[in-house]
Amino acid sequence: MICLVLNNNIVVGPTAWGDQEITLALFRAGFIDTPDKPLLPAEEPTSAATLANGYAILPVTVEPDAPPSGQIVTGHVTTIANNVVTVAPVYGPAPPAPTPPPPSSQVAKVDFLKRFQDSELTAAKALEATDTNMGIFWEKFRAVTNYVDLTDTEITGAVNYLVTKQVLTQDRATAILTP
Fold first, then answer.
1. What is the pLDDT of residue 107?
2. pTM across the whole model
3. How many CB atoms lie within 10 A of CB 29?
4. SS3 breakdown of the chain: % helix, strand, coil, rounded to 5?
5. How many CB atoms lie within 10 A of CB 171?
6. Three-state DSSP class for 170?
7. First to last CA, the chain
8. Same domain, residue pair 78 and 121
9. What single-letter DSSP state applies at residue 45?
10. Residue 43: predicted pLDDT
């Protein structure tokens, strides 16, 4: 890579040798007869090439992007020293890791049932035959396709109803309804 420099200021670049941008800039500056016939060496210079009127072509060194731990590349700085243009990364603190989303209140029906102990689920299911409220709940539960929402009033109402029927303790009801 090279840069076209005038009075220690980069005019064009860093860019690849032979890139149309550098060729047109050299043409406009009068260093190339026509855009297709440069008066410059065919090979990329490996050291500074001085041109007329304060212009120079300088080789470019690009330092690798290797941020230290906890840092990220936030940009690059270009400097000129000892007839070499150096492009170096600038580091800054890495953004904090994203916080995980809160647990979803949506759970698969089977996972909802797994929240109950076997004895609790057996007692809740037995109420279906003798308790109208639980019968309606289980009918609605079967009608739900794949997921239940732990914050849905039908679900919270049924679980809390099981507390009143002494099938669950309040602590167990809270655990079952916690996403």
1. 93
2. 0.46
3. 16
4. 35, 30, 35
5. 9
6. helix
7. 57
8. no
9. P
10. 64
